[in-house]
Each structure stands twice: as C-alpha cells, then as structure tokens.
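Example record for the data management plan.
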Amino acid sequence: MARTASSSRSFGVGRSRVDSFEIISAPPRNPVVRVLALLLRLRAELFVLAVLLTAWVALGPDRIPGPDGAAVEVPGTGLDPTGRALVFAAAAGVLIGVPWTRRFLFHRAQAVLTRHRVRQGLLECRVLNARSRACPLTLWARPTRVGEVVWVILRAGIAAHTVAEQAEELASTCFAREVRVTAWPKLTTVVRVEIIRRDPLEPNLIRSDLFRYAAGDPHEPGWPAPEPAPVGPAPRREPARPMLPPAPRPAIDGPADGGRGGDWSDYV
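Corresponding structural encoding:
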C-alpha cells in the first residue's frame, strides 16, 4: 500500500509548515528567566527607584516596635511627608541648576533610553533567532561626545551584518542622524552600535573663515569683520637674501666688415 505524504510537517519546536507557507511561533519560555531578563533591562530605573525610596525612609521619623508588635513612629524625629517632599524638590533643583550635573544626568538618561530603543528597533525589524525567536541582548550603553554607544551581544544564529543591515531603521528609532554598527575584532558575538546625534566639527560649533569662503558669501552676519587695510603706502620689504651682482659678460669682438664675425686669431 502506497504511503501518502502528510500536508503538515513539523520542523522542531515552534515551527511547522502548512502547504506553501510557514508558521513560526515562539516556544514557551521559563517564567523565571523572563523575569530575570526584565530586571536586567530595567536595572537603571530600579536602582534610581531604590535610592529614592531609601532616602525617603531615611528622612522620615524613627520607628520602634509598639506593644502589639507593630511599628510606631517616634514623635519629634525626622520630617513629615511635606518636609521630605520639599527636600527632594530642593535636591532636584540643585542637580538641574548646576550645569555639569545637569549634563551628566541628561546624557545618562538618554543613554538608558537609547538602550531600550535599540532593543525595540531590533525586535520590530525581526532581528531574531530562527527557532527560539530571541532578540539580541543590549548589554551596556554609555554617552559619547557625538551621541551614545550601545554594546549588543548576539545570540546563536544572528550575525553582525544582520544588525548592520538595519542601521537606517535604528537611526530612525533612536532619533539620530546616523548609526554605525561594528563587530568587535576579538569576538564577533559582541557588536558596537554607535548612535551619531551631533557632529563636533559642524559650522555652527566652530567659527572659522574657511566656512565663509567655501560658502562664497563673505558678508554673512555673525562672522568677525575683516581687518581694515593699513592707511598710506606700504613699507618696502627688504629682500630675504642679498642680491648678487650680475655676472660679467664675456668680451666678444663685433663682426668685421665683410667678415663672418668673432675673434679668429686663436685659430690662425
């Protein structure tokens, strides 16, 4: 009896083929691993939240166990909620008012946001494994002079050129002008994603007459005026090297009448 081929074939966990199209579904994952991955991604936000909660409790009144075992506030110690809120507002005002702390906090927060945006961009562009459907791990992000740098660890089955092909999509996702993807020479599993937001050599940051001359508009406002020309005749410049007297010309007799010219006495 001849065997009939089944119209549905299984290709491992989470993948099946039905007729002429393929269905890919995410396999079930361990909930503990998913929670740990979420905590790893939100480590910066959780750290800031833990610091704020610790400061809030430390500024509050002291607590001692009561007769029934519940914690009781000691009167006359610590600050009330209004006082603690004022302290937090004053600290935030100082951090925002000082220029270097404001820049530090802004760039750090932008680096954390860029790390989340890079992961979301890779997820939306389907830079995933073929079987487990896992996204690359965004390990670390730090600010640079031109933007941010995100270090990405590729999972099994994902190459560096796959991430590089999505450079334009990542630039649009991170609100940047350009994205450069470079694999680490010693280990191609680690990829450096450089987010370019600004150019430190652009004309608006460096004022130079070269940009004015290159643009062909010497009267552009905002540029320093040219130096005025000196009044009166310019002083005569002394030569850098002394002038040598001209070499004497050799004495040559003029042409004789009816002759061929020159002194022929040496040849007679």
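Summary line stored alongside the record: The helical segments are 31-41, 43-59, 81-97, 99-124, 160-164, 167-173, 209-215.
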